[in-house]
Amino acid sequence: MNYPSIGELWGEAVQVRFGDCALDIGRRELRRGSELISIGPQVFDILVYLVENRERVVTKDDLLDAVWAKRIVSESTLTTHINAVRKAVGDSGDAQSLIRTVPRKGFRFVGNVSEEKDSIGNGPMRAESSTAGHDSKQPTLALPDRPSIAVLPFQNLSGDAEQEYFADGVVEDIITALSRMRWLFVIARNSSFTYKGRAVDVKQVGRELGVRYVLEGSLRKAANRIRITGQLIDTSTGANLWADRFEGALEDIFDLQDQLATSVVGAIAPQLEHAEIARSKGKPTESLDAYDYFLRGMASYYLRTREAINAALPLFYKAIELDPDFASAYGMAAWCYGWRKINGWMTDRVQEIAETARLARRAAELGQDDAVALSRGAHALGFVVGELDDAATFVDRALMLNPNLAGAWYASGWVRVWLGESDVAINHFARAMRLSPFDPHTIAMQAGTAFAHFLAGRYGEASSWAEKALWEQTSYLTTLIIAAASNALAGRLVEAQKSLVRLRKLDPALRVTNVKDWMPPIRRPEHLASLKEGLRKAGLPD
Fold first, then answer.
1. What φ, ψ does residue 340 adopt, rounded to 5°?
2. What's 6-117's CATH class?
């Protein structure tokens, strides 16, 4: 029997069903029952490929060709991704009820599959596309009124999958160098990296991210030598505008990155003076060893699990030990404690707050010209320590240094929420979401927007934004609190009570009297009073 290909399925709103799962190829969504399952792009592609080729055994080489485009991938990486697929669909290596391992052959999807077209508004899939997906039918974002670019993840040609973190870190530094150009609109790392490991059509990337240019490249690291290649592509025509290669000793990595960033800028705007290009340069540290530990810490941080954050912290501390003036390492270490607070992972609250304050202030002191260090430090100082005035000062300087940094607008949005500056906060979250349309932090930006509307007394808008965030992540404590309080004050008690039920399941100890201990710092007493009033109306006990 001939089954439709991935490309054919993308062309229609088709749901593929098996067990209690519904797989929407076009929207790149997987549901189990009524729950939307968070799934990485490569894990999703493996699942689609297995389902599409369910009539046969799929070999490991088949998966490498289809999902990784024949890139070198370690055995452990492939095994990890297969396990992630099984977990996503509710299967396991022991049960193998859907995905069966065929010894020395490969894998086969053995579930009973049905396919059906989804009418708009009917069925479990939502109408709008996910921020993490790349639906070919997704609306085109309007181009900004200035040159715009996205830097895609570079291919790691080192023959060692363990060097992925290094290639990713190089790209992140190139993005940072480019984004220092005030006249240039640069898509944030968190959105451009959603294309990692995928064969992409640059014209589609241009439509989805709303950019005129895409920078692609590769990196090869061997012994103490490194080679970086890059090519600049016009997304409207697919034309290659520029290509070059840079190589040298490993200790010259920062100069190589600067050369690449400078060359791209020169290709986009030849009239740019060399003095302006020179101002875009900046090495994060003179210690290559410290930089290596920092990149490893970032690779762990982006996983955002409890275990990964616990692994990232000592790596950032090691970077600081090797280079005591490494501002970004202080900022990231401080924000790791912020992430611990967000998820309720703190073990010694008093000690962790004090350490966050030390790290955040040191980041700001050393990073007076480092927008990343300033914004991370500001976010942590405001959220964990509650020192809002200094947090606002730090993040304002970050925005002055780099108005293209989505993370700075995101941090500033939250600082403005806590200060009670609702309309400013909403504007700053909107700027962050435009600079990084596929950002993993989009949920938090939506939650912040909901919070800002709530503090302004716009309870209908607040509940609407809270529902957007909850659609993606149902277990976000802050969003559930805002959803319950805003619906209650808007007179929608049934909806408020539904949110409260979910809230109490997450945290049975939550009460009106202790809600301030679980929420971000709120400057104005009347705002905290409104929040408590809404939660009481929703049914939360004192």
1. -65, -40
2. mainly alpha
Whether 45 contacts 67, CB under 8 Å: yes
pLDDT per position as a tens digit, 295-306 = 888 888 888 888
User: Domain spans of the chain?
Assistant: 6-117, 148-279, 284-416, 441-542
Look at residue 54 and give its three-state secondary structure.
coil
Q: How confident is the model at residue 273 (pLDDT cuts 50, 70, 90)?
A: very low
The structure's pTM equals 0.65
Query: Coil, strand or helix: which one is 227?
Result: strand
Residue 280 tokens read as 């875009």
Q: What is the side-by-side strand order in the sheet with 29-32?
A: 35-36, 29-32, 21-24, 14-18, 114-117
Residue 318 is which amino acid? K
What share of the chain has pLDDT > 90, as a percent? Answer: 25
Residue 500 contacts residue 484 (beta carbons within 8 Å)? yes
Decide whether 148-279 matches 441-542 in CATH topology: no
Q: For tokens 């016009």, what's the residue?
A: 234
Q: What is the CATH number of domain 284-416?
A: 1.25.40.10
**Which pLDDT belongs to residue 310?**
94
Residue of 232 and 247 predicted with greater confidence:
232
463 alpha-carbon distance from chain centroid: 23
Convert the pLDDT of each residue in 168-194 to its tens digit: 888 888 888 788 776 778 899 888 988
Q: Residue 410: CB partners within 8 Å, gap ≥ 6?
A: 375, 379, 428, 429, 432, 439, 441, 444, 445, 448
| Whether the Cβ atoms of residue 319 and residue 300 lie closer than 8 Å to each other | no
Per residue in 116-160, pLDDT tens?
Answer: 654 333 333 322 333 334 444 444 688 887 778 899 998 888 777
Return the beta strands (E) in 40-147 as ranges: 99-102, 106-109, 114-117
Decide if 23 contacts 16 (C-beta within 8 A). Answer: yes
Can you spell out the DSSP letters for 355-417? HHHHHHHHHHHHTTT-HHHHHHHHHHIIIII--HHHHHHHHHHHHHH-TT-HHHHHHHHHHHH
- CA–CA separation, 220 and 269 (whole Å): 28
In CATH terms, the superfamily for domain 441-542 is: Tetratricopeptide repeat domain (1.25.40.10)
CATH topology for the 148-279 domain = Rossmann fold (3.40.50)
